[in-house]
Prior knowledge:
The protein is an alpha/beta fold. It has a single domain (8-195), classed as 3-Layer(aba) Sandwich (Rossmann fold). It has helices spanning 15-26, 40-56, 62-70, 95-108, 124-128, 162-172; strands spanning 8-11, 31-34, 72-75, 86-89, 114-117, 137-142, 151-156, 178-184, 192-195. Strands 3-2-1-4-5-6-7-8-9 form a nine-stranded mixed sheet, sandwiched between helices. Strand 6 and strand 7 (151-156) form a beta hairpin. The longest helix is centred in the N-terminal third of the chain and has 17 residues, at 40-56. The radius of gyration is 17 Å and the shape is globular. Bound molecules: nicotinamide-adenine-dinucleotide. The site of nicotinamide-adenine-dinucleotide (NAD) has 23 residues, from helix 1 and helix 4.
Amino acid sequence: MPREINSVAVAGxxxxxxxxxxxxxxxxxxxxxxxxxxxxxxxxARVEKxxxxxxxxxxxxxxxxxxxxxxxxxxxxxxxxxxxxxxxxALPEILDLKVPLIKELDELVSSGNMIGTNTSSIPIAELAxxxxxxGRVAGVHFFSPVPxxxxxxxxxxxxxxxxxxxxxxxxxxxxxxxxxxxLSARSTRCRRCSCRWPPRxxxxxxxxxxxxxxxxxxxx
Length: 220
Ligand SMILES: NC(=O)c1ccc[n+]([C@@H]2O[C@H](COP(=O)([O-])OP(=O)(O)OC[C@H]3O[C@@H](n4cnc5c(N)ncnc54)[C@H](O)[C@@H]3O)[C@@H](O)[C@H]2O)c1
């Protein structure tokens, strides 16, 4: 069963983090975006520009744009993310940046709440291994540009809690027309092994059949 998701926090308001914040707010959730103080204005500007484009293309009206923007708070303070029901990190793809952040989040984010990562290439187990309870970490891999791409890949490790995986799906579902589920490989040679979720009718692989991954890895 997924945990209730009534608020979202995003670490890193860059290309992907700003997009994740936007789609979460469009889905109706209050969102906190944490970035370094000198990059907060840029994070807000990214969301504003994207929403302006959506208004221009007739996807949303001005009132909806204002409503969505009002749901997003930009902060430099790590403590402001502590109470979010789901935390998504979207720092640059640099392990030495992500590891200290994951450790910090482990201290800050209420125990039991999930920590998601938008990493494209770092094995989930490598990040999950940095926290006290690795089962609460999963990959929630959005594609760029987030407000346009309707595919979200949920990436789990062998010791990801089922509740964490369910929560990741529940979080991604309002923004996606298709979610896939992948098993993150422990080996860095095979970054992740994919199976389709939900499975095709008649497929031998079920959503829970992740213990025997295929050997094909793919780049995103
Ligand atoms: N760019 C893509 O097309 C794409 C697609 C899918 C997944 N991803 C993944 O998404 C993640 C983010 O990529 P991006 O392209 O958005 O990167 P980006 O460089 O655009 O944004 C990263 C943000 O993190 C902020 N940041 C750095 N250190 C921080 C800290 N300690 N605390 C808070 N914020 C901090 C930066 O200021 C910046 O705003 C990466 O893991 C990447 O692999 C990227």
